[in-house]
Amino acid sequence: xxxxxxxxxxxxxxxxxxxxxxxxxxxxxxxxxxxxxxxxxxxxxxxxxxxxxxxxxxxxxxxxxxxxxxxxxxxxxxxxxxxxxxxxxxxxxxxxxxxxxxxxxxxxxxxxxxxxxxxxxxxxxxxxxxxxxxxxxxxxxxxxxxxxxxxxxxxxxxxxxxxxxxxxxxxxxxxxxxxxxxxxxxxxxxxxxxxxxxxxxxxxxxxxxxxxxxxxxxxxxxxxxxxxxxxxxxxxxxxxxxxxxxxxxxxxxxxxxxxxxxxxxxxxxxxxxxxxxxxxxxx
Length: 283
Prior knowledge:
The protein is built from eleven helices and twelve strands. It is an alpha/beta fold. It folds into two domains: 6-100 and 257-282, 3-Layer(aba) Sandwich (Rossmann fold); 138-253, 3-Layer(aba) Sandwich (Rossmann fold). Helix 1 (18-25) runs antiparallel to helix 11 (276-282) and helix 5 (96-108) packs across helix 10.
């Protein structure tokens, strides 16, 4: 019996926690390797020659998207993938940033139950299985307002995840992309009004230093998630300030993002649920 083999492409990725997470999730039963090169075509050829599935990280997400034969609905919406899987029909692309953030959102939104669909053992979810979530998104018990700060690949995935759950999405970016995008000039006002904030800018913005106690929505829950786990913008001092102002406010760092996208992505790879507790212990 041939053992399936998986890996990660991107550059640089020597620091990645993905191999340790994958090993913990499956108790070392499947190989998972770093395929590190600055040349995307070389990395992709190595995937085709020796791996059943790969995770994709910067700067290759859009290039990998263009290689896929089959796109999941979230990939079509986002225009990027971070997960490719070989199938008899061709290379399938998924976006586990979307899937992971979606799982997190269903947990933090009060009263909203997880709606991730099951899929057959040994298979990943097909595009048709996801279509219903885009045409008829489930509606939460209240209209949660979600602020997405930074509209790169991760931010686009987060926005799509929030919209798929029927949430009100506020988009914000350093560069204004369209009439629906707020500038950072509106950061404090939008931050104050939002129930959920997903921060995707890789560096701290000066507007974070300007937040006051009143911006943390006193007396009601406020949930913040950040994508960056190596150099978080929400430092310990800012988190202490937030908790002192509003004990109901919660911060989830980039390692939570990494864990949730890994849990959803690895199950697509193998058809088996990874061990969440072992993976959490690694982080």
